[in-house]
Amino acid sequence: MTKVPVHKLASFRKAVSFGSYTWRAIWKMEPTRRDYQLERGGIGGEAIGELNIQTGVFTTYTAFDESRDSLVLKEARSMGIAVVEMKLNSSSRNEQ
Amino acid sequence: MTCKNMEGGIELKAEHLKAIVESYDIKLVPEFKVKWLEKLRSGEIEQGRAKLRSINDEFCCLGISCDIVDSEQWEEAVNGQYYFHRLGGGWENGFPSPDVLSEMFQTDKEGWEGGAEIVSSTLAGLNDSGASFERIADLIDELL
Q1: Complex confidence, ipTM
Q2: CA angle B16, B19, B25 (to 5 degrees)
Q3: φ/ψ (deg, to 5) at B119
Q4: What pairs with residue B74 in β-bridges?
Q5: Sign of the alpha-carbon torsion through A71, A18, A46, A91
Q6: Which residue of chain B has the CA closest to A82?
Q7: SS3 for B108?
Q8: Is the pLDDT assigned to residue A28 strictly greater than 70?
C-alpha cells in the first residue's frame, strides 16, 4: 500500500455540489484510485456512498433505494461519469 | 440480495427494467414511442455514454428523446465537450428535464414523475453499461 504525500492529498481534495447533494473527492491510499463520496447536504453531511470514477461502480452505504439510486446516476452523469453498477457494502465507509 | 436496477450486467438490468415498469404501471406517449424507436433503430445516430449529447454528436438514448421533444434547445457548454438541453430553462446535460419527461411519458396517473425518473435512469444505466440502441429499442418496444 502506497502512502500519499500530504500536499498531494490536499491538492486533490475538492467538492462539487449539485442541488442538495455534494460529491467530495476522497483518497483511498492508492495513487491511481480516485473516488467521490456522495453526501447529502454540504461537505460532511450524511454519506450516501462512493463512486469509483475509473470503473463506474457506485458502492452504497445503505440499502438500495430506487429513487436514491436514480438520483446517484443523474448526479454522476452531470459530472460526465457513467455509473455502470451499484453494489451494497455497508462497511466500506469505515475504510476511509 | 435482490436484483436492483443498477446491479449486475445488461440482462440483469433489463430484467429489473421490466419489474420497474410493471411496478409503476407507466407507459410512453404512443406517438413519442414510435418516433423514439425509429431513431434508435435508424442506425444513423452515434451512441455515447454519460451525457445526453457530446460535442461530437454522440447521443445516449435519453439524448435522442430530448432531441425528439425539441431539437432547438441544445446549447454548447463553455468547456466545448457536450451540449445542454435547455427545455424549461434548466441546464441538463446528463438527464432529461421534467419538461422533456412530461412529453415522453403518459402523465394521467398519479406519481408518474417518480416512475418516469426511475425508468429513465434505468435506461441510462443500460445505455452506459454498453447496451446497444437496438437492444434498448427492443426493451422499450416490449415494455413501454
Answers
A1: 0.83
A2: 135
A3: -65, -45
A4: B85
A5: positive
A6: B50
A7: coil
A8: no
